[in-house]
Amino acid sequence: MGAEIALIFGSVDYGNWEYLSRYRGNVHVFCADGGIHLARKAGFRPEVYVGDGDSGGKAGNGIASVTLPVEKDVTDLQAAFTYACNQGFREVIFTACTGGRQDHHLANLQLLQLAARKGVRARIVDPDNEIRYVENETVKFSCAGFQYFSLLPMDEILSGVTIENAKYPLAHVTVRRGDSLTVSNEPKDGPVTITVEKGAAWLVLSQRLDRKK
């Protein structure tokens, strides 16, 4: 399973699931509690249910089930992620986990760092955004389908930040947490390259072009 992708549903109902169309037939579907209903609404077949039932989730026939106690030390989404890792998955897509309760939203963003520390490639996707984690590295990525990208520091300081092939390029600058210097950049034609020599940050691709008003 190591080369395959786990798509993990949280319990936030976006109502529009068209953004997931590219993943149909190419993922294994894990559901954190009420995410099992959203996976079905989105047109996916749940394979694994992980949860305590307090968001209305319940495993059905033919679905692997991991029942959790209501009082526990991790969220259902983190438990589903851990289960997927233990099954050998090294690429994970989280969805239906942004918006709603902001404590859960922020905790879910932090799961991207946890995934990176475990050697797992992870991202969060929703109808308007794709969020990744960058730390002490150079990443080259496509912004196809998105208008903007932003680099948001998790650490107090990002050192040696370089952005290439963008409307607002940077070369070896320092970016501090709370500064908006690296917010709302725009790609040129082709992939963008970002280097963060030291520090951790979220890389956010935002506003899907097919949803612009």
Description:
- The chain has 213 residues and is of the alpha/beta class.
- The protein folds into two domains: 123 residues, Thiamin pyrophosphokinase, catalytic domain (Rossmann fold), CATH 3.40.50.10240; 80 residues, Rossmann fold (3-Layer(aba) Sandwich), CATH 3.40.50.
- It contains three helices and eleven strands, in the order E-E-H-E-E-H-E-H-E-E-E-E-E-E.
- A hairpin with a 5-residue loop joins strand 9 and strand 10.
- The radius of gyration is 18 Å and the shape is globular.
- The model has no long low-confidence stretch (mean pLDDT 92).
Short description:
With 213 residues, this protein is an alpha/beta fold. It contains three helices and eleven strands; from the N terminus they run E-E-H-E-E-H-E-H-E-E-E-E-E-E. The longest helix is centred in the middle third of the chain and has 16 residues, at 102-117.
Task: Please tag this protein with its features.
Rossmann fold; 11 strands; 16% helix; eleven-stranded mixed sheet; 213 residues; 3 helices
Order of helices and strands: EEHEEHEHEEEEEE
The profile of the biggest β sheet is: 11 strands, mixed
* Tertiary shape: globular
CATH domain class name of the largest domain: Alpha Beta
Q: Please give the share of residues in helix.
A: 10-25%
User: Please, what is the average pLDDT?
Assistant: 92
- Work out the helix count: 3
Tell me the radius of gyration.
18 Å
Number of strands: 11
Binned strand content = 35-45%
CATH level 4 superfamily of the largest domain: Thiamin pyrophosphokinase, catalytic domain
Which structural class matches the secondary elements? alpha/beta
Residue runs with pLDDT of under 50 for 5 or more positions: none
CATH topology of the largest domain: Rossmann fold
- What's the CATH architecture name of the largest domain? 3-Layer(aba) Sandwich
Distance between the termini: 40 Å
Number of domains: 2
